[in-house]
Amino acid sequence: MKKQTKKRKFYPMGKRRKFDTEFKKEAVQLALSRGGPIREVAEGLGIRENILGRWVREYRQDADQAFPGNGRLKPDDEELRLLRKENAELKVENAILKKVTAIFSKGQK
């Protein structure tokens, strides 16, 4: 007898499926609570095993900040981005003030 395999749907470029945060968290919880192979849970949900595996890894690394959303940074990363931006602006302002100070100090001599 020939072993039957399920045909998986593959989505060509541009036909990417998007999953919301709630779905990802529920899928991860289901995978972790079963304790069995991730492959079985992924097939039951109609997603690829590697996708669910990545979601589980992200969730285990930082459950509170997992899956921030499309195009959004995690809160800690967003704060770091803003601080770096502010730091760059302050460096520019500081350089301008140094130049102005040098110009005025030359005129007073």
What can you tell me about this protein's structure?
The protein has 2 domains: 7-70, Arc Repressor Mutant, subunit A, CATH 1.10.10; 73-109. 62% of the residues lie in helices and 0% in strands. The protein has helices spanning 21-34, 38-45, 49-61, 75-107. Helix 1 crosses helix 2 (38-45), helix 1 packs across helix 3 and helix 2 (38-45) crosses helix 3. The termini are far apart. The model has no long low-confidence stretch (mean pLDDT 81).
Give a concise summary.
With 109 residues, this protein is mainly alpha-helical. The chain has 4 helices and no strands.
Averaged pLDDT: 81
Helical fraction equals: 55-70%
Q: CATH H level of the largest domain: which superfamily?
A: Winged helix-like DNA-binding domain superfamily/Winged helix DNA-binding domain
Shape: rod-shaped
- Number of domains as seen in the coordinates: 2
Q: Approximately how much beta-strand content do the residues carry?
A: under 5%
Structural class: mainly alpha
Number of strands: 0
Secondary-structure blueprint of this entry?
Elements: H1 21-34, H2 38-45, H3 49-61, H4 75-107
What are the salient characteristics of this protein?
109 residues, 2 domains, rod-shaped, Arc Repressor Mutant, subunit A, mainly alpha
